Amino acid sequence: MKRLCIxxxxxxxxxAAAQAQKKRAQATTPGDKTHVxxxxxxxxxxxxxWQSDSKIKVTQAxxxxxxxxxxxxNNVEFAMRVFGHMNKNDRGTRLxxxxxxxxxxxxxxxxxxxxxxxxxxxxxxxxxxxNDFPSGNSSRNIILIIxxxxxDCGDDFCESARQVQTSGMxxxxxxxxxxxxxxxxxDLSCAGKFFHVPNEENYIKTLYNIYAMAEQQAEVxxxxxxxxGKAYETTTPVVFYDKQTGMPRFQTIYTCNSKTQxxxxxxxxxIDYNVTFLTNPPKTISNVKLLSNQVNNLSIKAEQGYLRxxxxxxRILFAIPEYKVSVRDAATNALVNVQALHxxxxxxxxxxxxxxxxLPTIVINDVDISYxxxxxxxxxxxxxxxxxxPKGIYKGYILSIDETTGxxxxxxxxxxxxxxxxxxxxxxxxxxMLQDKEEYGNxxxxxxxxxxxxxxxxxxxF
Length: 462
Description:
The protein is an alpha/beta fold. It contains 6 helices and 29 strands. It has 4 domains: about 30-215, Rossmann fold (3-Layer(aba) Sandwich), CATH 3.40.50; about 220-300, Immunoglobulins (Immunoglobulin-like), CATH 2.60.40; about 305-380, Immunoglobulin-like; about 385-460, Immunoglobulin-like, CATH 2.60.40.180. It is elongated and about 100 Å long.
């Protein structure tokens, strides 16, 4: 019995350990974490008196109180990089406490032992910060810089900040400037959101405010309205791009009809966005700043009509390709969409150029698409050209002939390996030219002029 009790105790302890390990693993799962890297100025000026004590002593007291108050949080991890603390003339910086689960005690212990030595390496510290975050995860990465005024030995702090911003790794950089406002003649807002702290009381409040912002999410709802403001019933993909990096942050589908309302979803309010509704053509709302204390309604004005391109309905007894239709903006010639023949797709109201990729291509200019109506374009059905070549290897070309001007344009190069070619071609006048691949000179060229009728087969024999 005693042995059984021992075995049961071991099993229970193992299960408890496994459960604890599972919780730790869950706590550090990529994507559900916020990583905050604290970059602390420990240059010689931090010995200067400020408020009740030196700047470094006040900072240590404030940070220890702050770290104690957030020690119970599992969804935010901290790391700490320090600069100016190594040697008086050393411009080095070091990651003193890396990101890890439950490393609060290590950070507090290091804060207590910091001694300003001199040096000026804020730029180096910021440049190295990108290497401090865990790689290969999708967590929210935030940098928090605490300094008493930037004197960085001539280094370009703003250029380093730009590299951090455009890396796509860091969601936001916050800078807390302690001491006199005159110490911040160099603008630090190039790195992110700057807070000037004039006293100790404001110091701890600013830290809590930044921490609250790091945890907040913003509620967002989308709406697509016509010019009168009425909700437009449609389904449209939407992409949220990071304004700073241009990288996509979130994709969704806007859906609204007479029975449903658009969803409300949550976004990161620390990022400024460019929001693109993938209508035809796309419409973008630029520089969107989300507020975390309210529902942010993002709305665009969009009136849409519809376009369909089809053949005239004649019976076709031969195989034809699946023709594509290119739709371009009439003013800019920019490609808006490519749709299939005989399909109906929505477009923002306006004027377009429509290209049907038949042989030859049909171009229809100044196509007007109006609100809620369907523009239906009808084109002739193609005919079939059957070209029978002499035995041998022949190079050949087909030219279209404009019946009004007589202009000839190359529309097709024949396949040298085929004796017979079957080509669906739009109705009109054409010339086919052949030449033996081994022969040269105009006298060796064979020509035939032919006409293609809609939905009819035409044989061209050599």
